[in-house]
Specification:
Layout (H helix, E strand, L loop, with lengths): L4 E12 L2 E12 L3 E5 L6 H8 L7 E6 L2 E2 L5 H7 L1 E3 L12 H10 L6 H6 L3 H20 L15 H13 L5 E5 L7 H18 L2 E5 L3 H7 L2 E6 L2 E6 L1 H5 L2 H7 L4 H5 L2
Parallel strand pairs: 3-8, 3-9, 6-7, 7-8
Antiparallel strand pairs: 1-2, 1-4, 4-5, 9-10
Helix pairs in contact: 3-6
Amino acid sequence: MAGEVVIEIQNISLAFGGVQALIDVSTKHMRGEIFAIIGPNGAGKTCLLNCISRFYNPQKGLVIYKGEDITRVSTHSIAKRGIARTFQNIELFKGMTVLDNIKLGRHSFLKSGIFSDIIYYGRTIREELKLRNEIEERIIDLLEIEAIRKQVVGTLPYGLQKRVELARALAMQPEVLLLDEPMAGMNLEETEDMARFILNVNSMWGVSIILVEHDMGVVMDISDRVCVLEFGRKIAEGSPRDIQGDPKVISAYLGQDQKTYSRL
């Protein structure tokens, strides 16, 4: 339902030793929106994603998902609840094919038993065929990677590997997709393709998206709302237009790369 709060961050604080990564951060992510988290390097953007996906345990605060406190549940349980993510650094099995990497995103959800798995019959075959059809007919087609589906991931260019990682996350059939710098290291054409895929996943499949990204042009073009962090604190939140004109945001980006700053 549009306007429904899917994820609510309540006063999250996270520290590593004496370093405060997040300080009393609160925000909300609404169903169906593309919600961007931006800020200078070291602002705490990835730390916030890691708290949501349960890679980090905050010392203070709560993460509420569809009304449930998930602040202390396991990472595996998070995936089963419908939250998937990609990473800054590509986390793929480089010696496996594209198709096998994508299938791994869903295998932990399969319900066939150990005995049918060992001798590969009955329910195992049916689940495997259903999974393969879903991947080939929906995900591979959407991300335009049919031509590379049988190739070994480690032989692919960086931009295509990023697509495969997105495909694996989509194989988990998420309600919420966390994307950590999906355009990092891409050229202009690859960036435009990835932005188009993200928009399609959001509009065609109804997946809610939380996006951490440094490319301000992309953020302002595709996001519904933007949250800005600086030194672990939230300094602004609102529509892309509001964020572009916010004096605190402009100040936070002073001293950053002038090209990035000018695109705010």
